[in-house]
């Protein structure tokens, strides 16, 4: 479903992704973890081409993301849900219209149909009571749930999350993870950059550990957390457990 | 002084209309509204050209902005006065000359305000729209410009105030606006220039002060709505 083949990425002289190859099967949930600056955000942002790559190939749903010409990339992106650390809701639109606008503009739904779809999704993430509010009226956890609903409104077959809970107050982390967990349970293909190890243990089908622009270890969460193979992974796990 | 006002208020307000051309404060406001409306559209296009990253659009737009901003507004009036008839091939009325000059001048100022707004928008906004599959045009119209216009509203009002003051340049090419009307009155009375021009000053002041106050009010409202510090309105 998602294939990375020898992906290299440079920021100027800095080699941010070093010949990364990996594969995500349909319906699986990959958790990406690793120290700060290891290239997790860079990696996940190349998958929908928010970051260009130097060389290599990335296939999503059969589309070669970085070979797409002109407007083709917009169609490809519309099939890849993306959730940001900072939510990035549109502050000038109501919660309902934040979720409805993409189906209107990109899928050509009427506002009426799109708002129906948005209402259903917002109900599903537990925000049916907030649809007429504006984003700045909501807590961080609520905003992030709106952001997830906004991405889901395009009915993407895959969802990417870049540290969706790390900008949240601790008491709001749970409500967002719960939504992600229910998505996973429905068979959504997901890649999540996160340091929520509880979530990784329970939900992930696979953990990728990154350091210095490389995926240096992959495995099931059970293997990875109880018996990490690499020294760097052991050190990383020791640090996040304090 | 009140007698001057009593005898001439209609002239100051609407010129010789309906027996002659429209003028006075009405003409001043019509000119300013038309100029700012057109400059708003043109200024947006210039700002988009300057933020497009396309050299072929960036350089002409940037050159235009730098040249016009480096000149006093009266130069724009002169250029329009002498160059427009040559370009079009026939003489054009003073109203259109002045309007062209004001649009040219104001659009470069508005373009800078709009460009600053575009560039200060958090980059996550554009990224979120891209990630949903929006193209450049949609991102600009649905996400970027609505937010920019909203935060820029107070600056736009104060730019409107500048435009009102700049319409008085119409006097030098005999456009019948407010200053022209005051000067007509002064020519008739001959001996009372201080009073006539005090009246003129008060009228400009009242109109501009009201609008500047409105801009302050808007500025506070915008700041409250977005929960973010708004750009300060410069007294125009
Ligand atoms: N736009 C950029 N220009 C130059 N260097 C960058 C840029 N973005 C990231 N980098 C560098 O690339 C490396 C990887 O960054 P990235 O954001 O992918 O790390 P990360 O694993 O997501 O870290 P964090 O956990 O802090 O989010 C870092 O060393 C960072 O400094
Ligand atoms: Mg990151």
Automatic annotation (TrEMBL), chain A:
Classification via SMART domains: AAA
Keyword Nucleotide-binding: yes
Gene Ontology MF: a single term: ABC-type amino acid transporter activity
Domain ABC transporter residue range list: 2-237
UniProt KW keywords: ATP-binding, Nucleotide-binding, Transport
Family membership noted in the UniProt record: Belongs to the ABC transporter superfamily.
Protein's name according to its UniProt entry: Amino acid ABC transporter ATP-binding protein
Taxonomic path: Bacteria, Pseudomonadati, Pseudomonadota, Alphaproteobacteria, Acetobacterales
UniProtKB/TrEMBL annotation, chain B:
Keywords: Cell membrane, Membrane, Transmembrane, Transmembrane helix, Transport
Topology in the lipid bilayer: Multi-pass membrane protein
UniProt GO molecular function: transmembrane transporter activity
Localization of this protein: Cell inner membrane; Cell membrane
Gene3D superfamilies (UniProt xref): MetI-like
Top-level division of the source organism's lineage: Bacteria
GO cellular component assignments: ATP-binding cassette (ABC) transporter complex
Coiled-coil region(s): none
Family from the record: Belongs to the binding-protein-dependent transport system permease family. HisMQ subfamily.
Name of the featured protein: Amino acid ABC transporter permease
